[in-house]
Design brief:
heterodimer, A: alpha/beta, 4-stranded parallel sheet, B: 5-stranded antiparallel sheet, 1 helix, 29% helix
């Protein structure tokens, strides 16, 4: 078993889709997939085309590149322009526009910006360049944060004095809560983030069922995972249950990965507040290095502008991230904003909803579905019990 | 970048099992394996989920088979139900 093709079987996908169609009835279901990785799978495999017209997937905020606000990009660019600095980051981040160009533009202008696959690659650059200061621009949810933490612990053990982290790690629960508190959106349930859950487990989502009365099913990233997750959410509502279920048992343990959680606790602490693109400032929604690692914290060691910058007026990434707007309803989608010349973050990352719509050509079909959906009755189901 | 990919763990590189060679899509790469403890302890030949150079967790073949069995059963249970619907005599009002 290779744990990929088996979960892409077209026959089984049709079977599950048929079950969903047989059970979902004549109502308009709205289920949010929290994670950008799910959004990517949904468009890549055309899952919306398999679902009955009454089942709508709403794309959530779980794309780590998309949620980075413009001010933090400007900070990264300012770091890259400092003397003797090598700024390292994941490839996705290079093309995201700041208020005065992207990291890629900064590199064209002479800054030493290097793409890495892993924070460990950034550490190697630091080791190989002892006369330079190497900053890793860290982004990502709980999936990625342990990798940064382990890299910092490794740098400490090696006694490296020229490795720094610009920490932009965020946590998944606060934006889910912000969306649940938002009056703009009615949801029937959530497809919970699979890879975040490998680290945090499934218990942190219990507040969604307890306080908001919405089911959560943690799901994997193959097409059959998504379809089974949709079916499980619908079954819960129809059977009057409201639970956190784990569809992705082959990878996610209910209690998460205790070693990864321990590493996070050793290196990070919760930030009092952090700005999210489109969602604004959210309390206790991000991580920063704790005092033991202050000498490796780029925000403390270097001067960064730390200025809040408003998003471009034309950009509606915020509404897209909250699931309030469909990507193609944004004023600049596919015209001024394309993957080649992005204005907003959602068009940059492969996990961004806009890039997924654009790249996989789902634009016109999405509009057809929307027309079909508007004809369906909207029910009040899913309200707190 | 948040995507994580299943890869076969070929062999551990060091005695402390901090690093291993994995094979993904025909490519061999070295990954950090220090998160593979407890429930995630992985033997060579088994699969792990790889994310930005780290093995995040073990992929359980038994659980994967169970999920597929449920999915296959979904079709079977539906077919049985439909069979019964078809065979049942029409209800008399």
């Amino acid at each position: 078993m290779k744990f990929a093709d088996e979960f892409r079987d077209a026959g089984l996908a049709r079977t599950v889709a048929a079950r969903i169609a047989a059970e979902c009835g004549e109502r308009h279901w709205k289920i949010m997939e929290v994670c950008g990785g799910h959004t990517h799978t949904i468009f890549k495999y055309g899952i919306e085309d398999l679902l009955p017209p009454g089942v709508e997937l709403v794309h959530g905020p779980g794309c780590p590149v998309c949620v980075i606000p413009m001010g933090r990009l400007d900070d990264g660019i300012a770091l890259a322009r400092q003397d003797g600095v090598i700024l390292t980051c994941f490839g996705d981040l290079m093309r995201v526009p700041g208020s005065d160009g992207s990291l890629l533009d900064a590199r064209a202008g002479g800054a030493d910006v290097r793409m890495v696959y892993s924070p460990l690659d950034a550490l190697k650059i630091a080791r190989d360049n002892p006369d330079r200061r190497v900053v890793f621009y860290a982004i990502g949810f709980e999936t990625t944060a342990p990798s940064t933490a382990l890299t910092l612990l490794r740098a400490r053990a090696e006694g490296l004095g020229n490795f720094f982290v610009f920490c932009n790690h965020v946590t998944i629960i606060p934006p889910m809560k912000a969306i649940l508190d938002s009056p703009d959106l009615r949801l029937d349930g959530f497809l919970g983030p699979g890879h975040v859950s490998t680290v945090v487990g499934i218990r942190p989502y219990e507040f969604v069922t307890r306080s908001y009365g919405k089911p959560v099913v943690v799901v994997g990233f193959e097409p059959l995972d998504i379809l089974q997750g949709v079916h499980m959410v619908i079954r819960q509502v129809l059977e009057g249950r409201c639970e956190v279920e784990n569809q992705y048992r082959r990878v996610v343990h209910d209690e998460g990965n205790p070693k990864a959680l321990d590493v996070l606790a050793r290196v990070f602490r919760i930030r009092p507040h952090f700005e999210w693109r489109g969602l604004g400032f959210i309390s206790q929604s991000a991580l920063e290095l704790n005092d033991d690692f202050a000498d490796m914290d780029a925000e403390k060691v270097f001067t960064v502008p730390g200025v809040r910058v408003a998003d471009p007026k034309a950009c509606q990434c915020g509404e897209v991230l909250k699931g309030v707007l469909k990507p193609w309803e944004c004023k600049v989608f596919g015209t001024a904003c394309t993957p080649e010349t992005p204005i907003g973050t959602c068009m940059v990352s492969s996990e961004g909803a806009c890039a997924a719509y654009y790249n996989f050509g789902r634009y016109s079909r999405a509009r057809d579905r929307e027309t079909a959906l508007r004809a369906l009755p909207v029910t009040a189901a899913g309200a707190p019990r | 970048m948040c995507l994580a990919i299943p890869a076969r763990l070929v062999e551990y590189i060091d005695a402390e099992r901090q690093y291993a060679t994995v094979e993904l899509g025909g490519v061999r790469r070295r990954v950090n394996t220090c998160l593979l403890t407890g429930n995630d302890a992985t033997a060579p030949g088994e699969y792990v989920l790889v994310h930005v150079g780290f093995a995040l967790s073990r992929v359980s073949e038994a659980e994967a088979r169970e999920t597929l069995r449920l999915l296959e059963g979904m079709g079977a249970a539906y077919d049985d139900e439909m069979d019964q619907v078809r065979r049942a005599p029409e209800l008399q009002p």
